[in-house]
Design a protein that fits this description.
Elements (H helix, E strand, L loop, with lengths): L1 E10 L3 H12 L4 E4 L13 E2 L1 H9 L3 H4 L5 E3 L1 E6 L2 E7 L10 E3 L2 H12 L5 E4 L2 E9 L2 E9 L4 E11 L6 H5 L4 E3 L4 E9 L8 E6 L2 E8 L3 E9 L3 H7 L1 H11 L7 H4 L7 E3 L4 E3 L3 E2 L2 E3 L5 E2 L7 H21 L8 H29 L4 H14 L3 H12 L14
Parallel strand pairs: 1-2, 1-11, 2-8, 5-14, 11-20
Antiparallel strand pairs: 3-7, 4-7, 5-6, 9-10, 10-11, 12-18, 13-16, 13-17, 14-15, 15-16, 18-21, 19-20
Bound molecules: flavin-adenine dinucleotide.
Flavin-adenine dinucleotide binds next to α1, β9 and α9.
Keywords: Oxidoreductase
Protein name: FAD-binding domain-containing protein
GO molecular function, one term: FAD binding
Length: 409
């Protein structure tokens, strides 16, 4: 078995893991990033990043480079209720320069960060390598066991293991860290369609009697479409057949007539997001830290998951650097990591409860409440409370800045 020794082993090359390993590599830390997939166009993922992330990309000096990846600036997020704008979350009313969100395909973005990290000789990327076990003694994590696609085993010893391996986190389970799950009554069905030339596709949630349709612009010529269904009813949808699904969507949005019958031919083109909301009860222990979806799962309302994972990485970077520099060469103890959890957990919980409120507002069914919603929306969007919510959605609920003083160059 191959044996490797690093300072920090980061597991999972999603937005959280890529950002943390890049920041650590750039700060001179011997860092390894392990990802079970060979290629990064892994499971279907959301492409929307909040203005808070635009700011972080700028702070580390990579924003202009990222603009070489096909992307779109998103000036606002619109809620349309039976053909009428209910309200808009206007990023373009925020203070410049961070007054827009971005849609960027995840695979080239993640590859970009791995490529940047690989410029530092203290960074190693292990693609196609799954972590299968922890090396743990008396509740302290000393490293991990992984296996690559050829079946070769790897033992990695580290001072800290960062679990950024997503909502079904193996690291969380192996470390015995429990998770509290919330209730969520909806699931999303996602698929891509080509843009109809000349038609505008703003970031939008469209509410109709039959359900909710979500558009997320994706690159130059594609749109990601989401359809909200009651929880666990996807098998019924599939049973009725793709033609029935296409008819339902066209009834909601007649413009789709031009594109759906030709481009949505099978449920194989769709993926279901089983919407879950959850919080891991403890994010750190001796030698271990969790971030991103491994630490918390946000609902997809207002597109927060990517941004939360990246914000975690930025705060974790600062905490880990302080811990590594505080002397000694041993395992990083939980007491030096706890500040990260204490800072991030309440912020994530606040975002999750804001999302739950949005979901309740959008999923209203009773005709009386719907009338009230339509009457109050124009008043609501002029209140300071609405602007505060907009700022929290776009910029996050707390200050998150990259500590660039650790960068070696
Ligand atoms: C369909 C869909 C649409 C979404 N839309 C949006 C959106 O528009 N905006 C938004 O902000 N969020 C969105 N989200 C949520 C967002 O994608 C996640 O919150 C975000 O990806 C979390 O990042 P992460 O780095 O924590 O984990 P992930 O992105 O889940 O990455 C985890 C990585 O760990 C790897 N891994 C897992 N186990 C192991 C192992 N044992 N060994 C090695 N590697 C392992 C996985 O292969 C994966 O690459 C969406 C999610 C889905 C599923």
């Amino acid at each position: 078995m191959k044996i490797i020794d690093v300072d920090v082993a980061v597991v999972g090359a999603g937005p959280g893991g890529c950002m943390l390993s890049y920041l650590l590599a750039r700060s001179g830390v011997r860092t390894a990033l392990l990802e079970r997939h060979n290629r990064l166009d892994r499971e279907f993922r959301g492409y929307f990043f909040q203005p808070s992330v635009v700011k972080l990309f700028d702070q580390i000096g990579v924003l202009e480079d990222i603009f070489h990846i096909p992307h779109q600036h998103v000036p606002k997020f619109t809620f349309v209720d039976h053909g009428k704008t209910l309200f808009e979350v206007r990023f373009d009313e925020l203070e410049p320069p961070y007054n827009y969100g971005l849609t960027i395909p995840q695979p080239p973005l993640l590859e970009f960060f791995i490529g940047q990290a690989a410029r530092y000789s203290n960074f190693t990327y292990f693609g196609g390598t799954s972590v299968t076990d922890l090396i743990e003694e008396d509740g302290t994590v000393h490293g991990l066991i992984a296996q690559n696609h050829e079946g070769e085993e790897l033992e990695m010893r580290c001072r800290l293991l960062a679990g950024a391996d997503g909502r079904h986190s193996t690291i969380r389970k192996l470390a015995g860290l429990s998770q509290t799950m919330g209730e969520f009554e909806l699931d999303f069905v996602w698929f891509d369609i080509p843009k109809v030339p000349g038609k505008d596709y703003p970031l939008q949630i469209q509410i109709e009697d039959e359900g909710m349709l979500i558009y997320i612009p994706k690159g130059e010529d594609q749109v990601q479409v989401g359809w909200v269904i009651p929880k666990k009813t996807y098998p019924e949808l599939v049973k009725k057949g793709i033609e029935d699904f296409v008819r339902t969507l066209i009834a909601v949005e007649p413009d789709l007539q031009n594109v759906l019958p030709r481009h949505l031919r099978s449920f194989k083109q769709c993926s279901v997001l089983d919407i879950q909301v959850g919080m891991t009860d403890t994010w750190v222990k001796d030698g271990l830290l969790l971030l991103g979806d491994a630490a918390h799962i946000a609902s997809p309302f207002s597109g927060q998951g990517n941004s939360l994972a990246i914000q975690d990485a930025v705060i974790a970077h600062d905490t880990v650097m302080k811990a590594l520099e505080s002397g000694g060469h041993g395992i990083v103890p939980a007491e030096l990591l706890k500040g990260y959890e204490l800072y991030r957990k309440p912020a994530v919980a606040e975002i999750q409860s804001m999302q739950a409120m949005q979901a309740r507002l959008i999923a209203m069914k009773s005709p009386g409440l719907l009338r009230l919603r339509r009457m109050l929306a124009p008043v609501m969007r002029r209140t300071p409370l609405f602007h505060q919510m907009r700022n929290k959605i776009a910029l996050g609920v707390q200050r998150v800045d990259v500590n660039t003083s650790y960068f070696t160059k």
